[in-house]
Fold this sequence. Notes:
The complex is a heterodimer of chains A (421) and B (214). Chain A is built from 15 helices and 13 strands.
Amino acid sequence: MPSSNNKHHLEDYAPIVTSGVIREIEELARLLGPVRIVHVNSTKEGGGVAEILGWFIPIIEELGMKVDWEVITGEKDFFTITKKFHNALHGQPEEFTEEMFAAYLDNVGKNAPKIPEDADFVVIHDPQPAAMIGEYPDRKNRWAWRCHIDLSEADLRVWGFLRPFVERYDGAVFHLPQYTKNLMAPQFIVPPAIDPLAPKNEKLSEEEVSSTLHKLGVANDKRIILQVARFDRLKGPFGAIEAFRLVRRWYDCCLILAGGSATDDPESQAVLAEVQDMAGDDPDIHILNLPPDSHREINALQRAATVVVQNSRREGFGLTVTEAMWKAKPVVGTDIGGIRHQIIHGVSGFLTHSVEGLAYRIRQLFGNPGMAKRFGQQAREYVRNNLLVPHHIRRWLLVFHSLRQSGNGDLITLPPHEITE
Amino acid sequence: MAKPFQFFTEQGIVYYSGYKADNLKALLTGLRGVPSSSIFYHLYHSLLRRHFTTTDYMNDFAQWVWGVLWQKTLGEKLASFDPLEFTRLRDARARLIEIVDAYVGETEYFLRVSEEQAFYFLCMKSFVYPLGVQASSLPELMQALRVVSPQSIFYHLIESRLRLREPSNDLSDWLKTQLDMPDLAATINTFSPYEYNLEELRNKIIAVVQDAIK
Lengths: 421, 214
């Protein structure tokens, strides 16, 4: 998801995705009409959902729609319970009592925002406000549940509790097919997008890339293997170091592990210390613990990299993979989760299953600069065609059209209109 | 006076069909049971999503069988499947089933993959609408081709075979019937999306239209 608060206009993306694509989106919006859309989540500040809505809503409004952004409120207990829901839906073990489920419903009944009657579409984000739909048994508008969570290993108790509510929606929206459940309502797939105009992805001059590397203490004089990820065991930083050491027997290169470690997360601090310990005093391993707003630094590192790796053990839709692909870098990633949907093996990068496989593919790319360049170009094209802000907007407009036209089959001709030119 | 050629586009949103396959037999079951829009999505629309990879292109079925199930022989058969040979989805589906069924019949052991690696049959809800761009002559056509999206090129050049149920495309049809240019129509109909990506295809058409104007 775009990482900037900078607001851009849809037209700003025309030089990237072509004006033809922008025109299609504008037409799609025009055919939808001046509808009213209400989004409900649990916070307006912080977190991925708030970040997405921050850039999504202005563009949708610019397309002629009215958008309300409401949040569900609650006491600390409510959010403690919903945090446990969140963890359990991710597959983590959590303890629940009947009182917790009752308290959740009680809060939703008391504190859910009121949905205006003239709203055409209501989009409820994640589990916190999911049960709100129960408060509107006679609703006339169309409701969608946007789930940002990987439900593939969801705790059955929590899912069993939420499911009857989710079944009442007119549609559910997931990042990946693997996250879907068996539901009666249609389950749309809308993958996350990146913003090519955000500081993390915008074009940088070679001078800025060089000076950033210098500032970060990285000499730009040898091949660079880069992994951008927070310091977390699930991101596979130790395997990345092992792979680097295997590659270095063949090629002079360095490894950069760039990420952040939340100060309130003792686990990430411990992992960072272990990674630093494993790297020892090797001058070719750079462990960069960067502040959360280091967007331009990450951008420069991705642009300087020869090969980008994502050695995760578990990953949803790894946005750092999309970001690297957008910078025309060949990416070698673990054959799991969303990475499998992002990288086309042997076309835009490689999918691997082991440290040895990771090292082998990095070597292959180092030894074949032509292949690396072709992979990078194809990776960028894939992102340019599928995973940028305009594609995200288009998919959501199509979700709204689908909700409106539910039951009308899979091929729908929208009303023709007067030819304007 | 020629009837103008009106450019349309098709935009689709993907949804889960409820079918998934973790082995070849389940793939076969899915191929038999899914709605037609799923066959369209995995066989035809995959070309639009990865149109820039013309030389490495494989449809979604071939990609999964090759890269996840490691069934190279079947992968090759599916990769060489040319959807443009078919003018009806049901015929394309029948041929796919025939290929997979024959392979399953000859296979003794079936690799089963994890849920995460399973093939999820996706459907596509498609919306067709005019772009507000039209052409009544070759110069206007050239101008229009420059501004329409790759999706529109895909809709008129590739998907139209399924709509027209003819081994042609509607741009060629228009050139033949409205502008009386059968040679230009035939030339455009020979351009293959497996040889050129959609941008190249657009440029190829613009080039031949330009030549015809001269």
